[in-house]
Amino acid sequence: MNKLNVLLVAVVMVFATGFAQAQKIASVDINSIFTSMPEMKALDAQLQTLQTSKQGELEKQGKSLQDLMKKYQDEAPKQTQAINEQRSQEVQKLQDNLQQLYAAAQKDIAEKRDAGLAPIEKKINDAIAKVSKAASYEFVFDASSPALVYKAGTDATAAVKKELGL
Fold this sequence. Notes:
Skp_dom_sf, Chaperone_Skp, Protein Binding, DinI Protein, Chain A, signal, Molecular chaperone Skp
């Protein structure tokens, strides 16, 4: 029985020693890094220009459709039932086309954003990996993430910004 107790104490000590070694944990505010990167500012400007352009096109098409609808409504009492139905179908088709143009514009903007974000994200991730290896961090959490419950580790945001030259 005494040998069993000694063995149990030895096993507990081995596990306790393993858990007692402190792990280096850091946090990074990725949102802060994104907003301070010139590449992100340039991407935002490009996306704003694209959105303004697409919005102008859509407004022009929408105005044209509204003018046509007003014209058809004003002329409706003077037209035959068949012509009014034909015009109604034409207006419906134009409305559907406008909705498709809107969806295509949204898709274009999203694709442009995703394509522009990919190299920026890679650059940030590479910088985080380099800083983490240099400082021997075992874990780095995104401080701007809602999944982060407790933040008391070292904040590596400044080091990552320095690595990126920001």
